[in-house]
Structures are given as C-alpha cells and as structure tokens.
Amino acid sequence: MAEVAASLSIGQVAERTGLSVHALRFYEHEGLFVNPVRRGPGGRRVYSQHDVDWLTVCVILRASGMPLPALRRYADLVRQGAGNEGERLALMREHQANVTTQISKLAESLDLIRFKVGVYEDSLGLDSAGDRQCHAPAPSAPSHPTEIRIGHAGVGLMNTPPGG
C-alpha cells in the first residue's frame, strides 16, 4: 500500500525550513523545487515532507554561499534524474572549493579578531587567555614581516613588503 504524503501549508513549511512565505514563493518562481508545487482546493500551495527535505538542502547550500544560478542548475539536474551524476559532482566540487576558500578567509579574519581582542584585553588589564606570549596573528598571516602601528585609532597591522 502506498504511503500518503502529508499535506503541509506554506506557513507550516516556512516554519519548518526557516524560510519566509515570500522566500518560498520566490523559490518556486525561480524553479528551485525538484517537483512542481501542488495546489489544493482554492489554489493554495500544498507541500510534502519531500519538499521540506529538499528545501533544507537548498537552505544549507544558500547559507554556504551557493549562487542562485548554481542552485537552479543543481535543481534542474536532480529533476532530470539519473544519468547526470558527473555534472552534479562537478557542480558540488566547484562549490566545495568555494566554501573551502571562504572558510580559509574566515579563519584569517578570526586570527586578526583574536589579535585585536588580545590587544584590547591587555590595554584594559584583562588577561582571559592566561599565559599569552604575544598577540601576533596565527601563521596564516602573510609570510613577510608585519609591522604593528599604534596610534589614536588603536592598534593595526601594516604589511611590510619583502625587503621593506
């Protein structure tokens, strides 16, 4: 016996996915659903748990920075079914590389933020880090010497070009 799919309203799907009702309509208009959104009596949108699961994937991919055209292409490939796994893999590998680069840049940003927190903690006589030896950014900083300038605007890092 086939299982009957639960019918969910647009409000219920919005609540389950964290997307607004407006965003759900936008996703439908942009062709981001794998299956067409069904309509109930009176023309109201009716969703299934499968739709919610797919939207969860979309939300994660968007949160990780996947552009709408790439997400639309991915939805198109999934909609087409088996036989295009190589294209899906290529799309995901490209996005994986972009996310990895983004994580690396965020890690560098976090290094600078930690440095600045340490500087201000020291200037206020706080020492929440215990035996901190220095406040230099982590090794992900540029390999050439870094000059630290102290002025009225606070402490800042200035990259010194090699030989400079």
Gist?
The protein is built from five helices and four strands, in the order ααββαααββ. With 164 residues, it is mostly helical.
Secondary-structure map:
Layout: H1 10-17, H2 21-29, E1 38-39, E2 45-46, H3 49-63, H4 68-80, H5 85-123, E3 146-151, E4 154-159
Antiparallel strand pairs: 1-2, 3-4
What does this structure look like?
The protein starts with 9 loop residues before the first helix and ends in a 5-residue tail after the last strand. It has 164 residues and is mainly alpha-helical. Strand 3 (146-151) and strand 4 (154-159) form a beta hairpin. Helix content is 51%, strand content 10%. It has a domain at 1-81: Orthogonal Bundle (Multidrug-efflux Transporter Regulator, Chain: A, Domain 2), CATH 1.10.1660.10. The chain has helices at residues 10-17, 21-29, 49-63, 68-80, 85-123, and strands spanning 38-39, 45-46, 146-151, 154-159. Residues 141-164 have low confidence and may be disordered.
Key phrases:
two-stranded antiparallel sheet, 164 residues, 51% helix, mainly alpha, Multidrug-efflux Transporter Regulator, Chain: A, Domain 2, 5 helices
CATH class of one domain: Mainly Alpha
Number of helices: 5
CATH architecture of one domain: Orthogonal Bundle
Structural class estimated from helices and strands: mainly alpha
Biggest β-sheet: strands ordered side by side in the sheet: 1-2
Q: pLDDT average, as an integer? A: 83
Shape: elongated
Strand content: 5-15%
Percent range of helical residues: 40-55%
Order of helices and strands: HHEEHHHEE
Q: Let me know the number of strands.
A: 4
How is the biggest beta sheet arranged? 2 strands, antiparallel
Show unreliable segments. 141-164
How large, in whole angstroms, is the Cα Rg?
Answer: 25 Å
CATH topology of one domain: Multidrug-efflux Transporter Regulator, Chain: A, Domain 2
State the distance separating the first and last CA atoms.
77 Å
